[in-house]
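Write out the 3D structure for:
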Amino acid sequence: MPSEKQTAVKYYVGVDVGSASVRAALVDGFGTVVAHAEQPIQVWEPQPDHYEQSSADIWAACCSVTKEVVRGVDASQIRGLGFDATCSLVVVDKQFQPLAVNSEGQSHRNVIMWMDHRAASQVKRINATQHRVLSYVGGAMSVEMQPPKLLWIKENLPESWEKVGYFFDLPDFLSWKATGVTARSLCTVVCKWTYTSDRGWDDSFWKMIGLEDLVKDKYEKIGNHVLSPGEAVGKGLTAGAAEDLGLPEGIAVAASLIDAHAGGLGVIGADVKGHNLPCENQPITSRVAMICGTSSCHMGVSETPIFVPGVWGPYFSAMVPGLWLNEGGQSATGKLIDHVVRGHVAFPELEAKAEASAHSIYTYLNSHLDLIKKSLPVGFLTVDLHVWPDFHGNRSPLTDLTLKGMVVGLTLSRGLDELALIYLATIQAIALGTRHILEAMQAAGHEITTLFLCGGLSKNPLFVQMHADITGKPVVLSKEVESVLVGAAILGACASGDFASIQEAMAKMGKIGKVVQPNHEHKRFYDKKYEVFLKLVEHQREYRSIMNSL
């Protein structure tokens, strides 16, 4: 905790709501995380592809972790508060009380999570309209966006639909809880709800998809007051929220960001001088921020709008003010690695050996791969083992949620060696998917030279090296591992008025920690792996076509 001599230091609180936990950090004006806390939150999966949470549970966790990180700090030094969260849908009534998003009528479960795919038929109908707003989401809307979920609620839960007062994206729900102001962030409404910064809401879209009742009340239920990320919301923290969070009443609260965008903010603007990177002395548009946790997002910015088939956007000022954002993504990355590793028959052996060596299961697997590689580079161990990673559908660049995962090259072996190999092949498949996304962005006009990684998977050196080798681009890791929290704190810093702009705060609070260079001697091997990777989806579509002809 800061010493008494540091009384002049200004601090900002960043709160990040992920899929499984809430985290908070106390961050200084140089981007250093001074204190950090985390608390798990509950997830319900009442049936396949249905994922639900509780807004009350989430807020309680926000309060708990925030109190923990500011304990013992002089309140006058805390200048601002910023939130980021997953793009989950929060449903409340006219008195802001939770409404059920499930057929069981469990009102405390009032959040449809971002990764929920219940609205598959609704999104198919929405995409069939070919409405002009779809051109800003890569040509086809994702089931993970909010309009299909709204339509699902209307069609399947008419009682809840009739009682709805407000639909919030989770980041906006948090800023409302803190300030009592129902303003929405430009980030959320542009990226997940079809709002555009120049035209606002498009009446014809909502009427065409059967949600004309949202138009009638001038969009009050989904937001008719929109703020730029980092802009101060209302009069700051309310007395009630201040007591809940353990913060001083009235401190600045920022318009929020989606979690991936906060991660992008925390890394993409860092000063790279002296690191011999191709993006040095180049505009920020030569960088892609990759936020990799449960899922992965690939954030690239441009000075003019670039329309990339299968990649979300272009979204104006959704992450960095004044720049257009394109957002690629993979719906299951960390979740996929966990699924593959924990579901393997040799997992109990792995768990026991990792525990005995006092290492995490992934550190142990990385060491085991080094043992079995012999004279080969580690990555070459999968010459006969290939994975297509879309176990939860493809978000980018194919936008096909019906795609399934594939593994080619299995044997009857069931030991730890085989578990290590399928783990490696899965990581490589995720990196090959990133290459697929980057190639689509570059083909459309992006000029990308450098990757900036943050999130939980960026702590895994094998994951990082595979992304460098397979994309052929250097990977920059931030000095602060918790870049998403730094991004949230940057919002609070901007709202406080201590920085003139988001860009200034990004440059001062984002710091480079390590650079991982690609091994160009391995290029030919990974080019061949990529050829196989693309063949896998061709084969999947071919066998589907055969079976669909029945």
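The domain at 11-255 is CATH 3.30.420.40 (Nucleotidyltransferase; domain 5).
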